Amino acid sequence: MLGRVKLKVKKGDSVTVIAGDDKGKKGRVLEVLTDKGRAIVEGVNLVSKHTKPNAKHPQGGIIKQEAAIHISNLMVNDGSGTPTRVGRRMGEKNKLVRYAKTTGEEIK
């Protein structure tokens, strides 16, 4: 779907949801699904899943879990926690690094 597009969001990033039902929520990226252009964010886009009893959930029942959200609905937070656009530039040792467009500081 997305081909070889370079995504701005990586696993472990702190992000803010900028569109959808969970607009304004903040969370940490748990997983990025590059082939679908989606990410799973901690505490965002929760869905109810009906499960049978198993080793992890001996009672079974309904559990809440995160569903994937499209990357276009996410914005990376800079060091201070405010949403920012992400740019890429050459850093030290001629390696591409991501940086916050608002502050200009490097995103780790």
What does this structure look like?
The structure is a single chain. The two termini are 27 Å apart. The protein is built from no helices and 9 strands. A hairpin with a 5-residue loop joins strand 8 and strand 9 (96-100). It has strands spanning 14-17, 26-33, 38-41, 46-51, 61-66, 68-70, 74-76, 86-90, 96-100. The model has no long low-confidence stretch (mean pLDDT 92). It is 0% helix and 41% strand. With 108 residues, it is mostly beta strands. It has a domain at 14-52 and 59-78: SH3 type barrels, CATH 2.30.30.30. A 5-stranded antiparallel beta sheet has the order 6-3-2-1-7, with no helix packed on it. A two-stranded antiparallel ribbon has the order 4-5. A two-stranded antiparallel sheet has the order 8-9.
Features:
108 residues; mainly beta; SH3 type barrels
Write a concise synopsis of the structure shown:
The protein has 108 residues and is mainly β. 0% of the residues lie in helices and 41% in strands. The chain has a domain at 14-52 and 59-78: SH3 type barrels (Roll), CATH 2.30.30.30.
